[in-house]
Amino acid sequence: xxxxxxxxxxxxxxxxxxxxxxxxxxxxxxxxxxxxxxxxxxxxxxxxxxxxxxxxxxxxxxxxxxxxxxxxxxxxxxxxxxxxxxxxxxxxxxxxxxxxxxxxxxxxxxxxxxxxxxxxxxxxxxxxxxxxxxxxxxxxxxxxxxxxxxxxxxxxxxxxxxxxxxxxxxxxxxxxxxxxxxxxxxxxxxxxxxxxxxxxxxxxxxxxxxxxxxxxxxxxxxxxxxxxxxxxxxxxxxxxxxxxxxxxxxxxxxxxxxxxxxxxxxxxxxxxxxxxxxxxxxxxxxxxxxxxxxxxxxxxxxxxxxxxxxxxxxxxxxxxxxxxxxxxxxxxxxxxxxxxxxxxxxxxxxxxxxxxxxxxxxxxxxxxxxxxxxxxxxxxxxxxxxxxxxxxxxxxxxxxxxxxxxxxxxxxxxxxxxxxxxxxxxxxxxxxxxxxxxxxxxxxxxxxxxxxxxxxxxxxxxxxxxxxxxxxxxxxxxxxxxxxxxxxxxxxxxxxxxxxxxxxxxxxxxxxxxxxxxxxxxxxxxxxxxxxxxxxxxxxxxxxxxxxxxxxxxxxxxxxxxxxxxxxxxxxxxxxxxxxxxxxxxxxxxxxxxxxxxxxxxxxxxxxxxxxxxxxxxxxxxxxxxxxxxxxxxxxxxxxxxxxxxxxxxxxxxxxxxxxxxxxxxxxxxxxxxxxxxxxxxxxxxxxxxxxxxxxxxxxxxxxxxxxxxxxxxxxxxxxxx
Length: 722
Ligand code: ADP
Ligand code: MG
Known about the structure:
CATH topology of the domain at 31-182: Ubiquitin-like (UB roll)
Radius of gyration: 28 Å
CATH superfamily of the domain at 31-182: Glutamine synthetase, N-terminal domain
Bound molecules: adenosine-5'-diphosphate, magnesium ion
Largest sheet: 9 strands, antiparallel
Strand content: 5-15%
């Protein structure tokens, strides 16, 4: 029999029915119906204005004020005709969240009437009071001004809520001195940097018609659904997004019966609601399925240009969370909500390409494409080898640390998985001669005889943090709750740097009289000689790899964020971002400060919660139960029945562990060392282990105390009740 509050929650859940929402609209009416898309603009704007908008989207540059005015007018008419009264500049601060400031369209007149008004200036630039967003010291609060500026490459859209509609305008967020305060600005800059270098390499390879090169992203989002009646009884889930206590359930995920199993009806109805909203917003949701853990699911879109994909990914997280509430669920985007149960990641599929040469990471069918592909692929390999620690740093959060290297997710050592066929090709390059491949036939070094690579999608390695998957790389170590902007910025920037290196080498070789093929092969060989150590096709979870990676390959193992975040302060990283024009040293420093502070805050909040829950929910229940036991032991003795004290002894021992560890944790919390780096290490090496010891005591107690008294919903209830 569960405790009264848990019993009430169970009853609530039993009464729940799938929540049907609006009538089902045909796809044609649904798709992007809430998006001020290019097609909508084309209809609404004079031809000259539309062409100018199109040109700005394609080529960048400033929007003329008269054009902006016309667009603003059309946008307002479109939005108000659909019921919008307010507009919002949406931006992406250095937390992983989405921020917005709402303003009404109304403008009062002197005669008491109001008109709706929206000018080009209001569209293009906003000024939210950004002083309370984390900015890592770029602005002191008395210089609070921050500006939002319309990102014309990401379309405006309508956000529907039950009582109204808001026009949302994606923007960048910068300080009054021009420093990026957000995640979008560096993403746009990193894409531009990558484009500059890719153009250069393509020209060296003999291309003359080269469209702008863009990065693409398709992000697979994993999440948990827990009934909100349980979550209301779990302050840890409410405040920290993960359970700080909870004994393992008798049945976990051992049976692997959830993965790709039939989707429970209440969940499927939720998913359909989410997908319908995403379709209205022009987000191409494409895949849904159960994930490995009970209560865990996945949604993945069709890939898009990285900037738009990132905005859409943020929208997906927002819609998932808001819609879950409607269906009586809480959507957990935390990387490790349940100890001992698989956590959630966000696989960031990433490639680069353009309209003229196509996907530059596609091995393709023709030998010439192969040379191009091999060089771009080599650039990625070198980038990961030189800047692996940066890739580890951009996925470093307190929550993702619980997942990385925990035998269910990629390790904290960054390596590249190429697949056996491609690995073989690069090994032949290292050996100095392409002599053949599994597809047979002999090959010399000439470009026209480079092997014709075939895609091998069956070849997967779940244990690699960064894997080539046929025509893209999949960054598998990204956390489920993270913005994908940070990882994409890192990937684009290290690729820009590496393509530059490749292009420089080729130019040098050409200047000494080499042919293009000789020059290209020399660069490929040098890449393998100097950077091949980062390629690994084996079991990334194994302890043998952990040792080999560090001792033989010279790769870094950065197990916690406290180890990884300081990478952002290394001169080599500062130079990389500055050289590529992605982040100034000040902007990078501010990111380090913000992320380090968030790490410390996250763990300290959890530590305080551990203390609060252990002392106010667990301890009283244990004491009352001990009282009960003492009484019944006494009456057994009075009746002359031999009394067994072993349960009492176990309870007392665990309770003493709980009380003692709580005192220790409280003291450790009150006395952090000075300096952010030491403070982070204190969190990782002192607070977390202490919290874990309290958890051991509490989880032990959960298995002994009368279920009728236990206040917290159990793992069994939260994971299996839907
Ligand atoms: P998986 O087998 O890993 O689940 P999916 O077929 O579901 O793979 O695809 C994963 C994601 O990769 C999807 O979002 C898909 O659109 C995206 N994707 C496919 N091709 C590319 C590409 N060239 N660049 C970026 N993302 C891509
Ligand atoms: Mg995948």
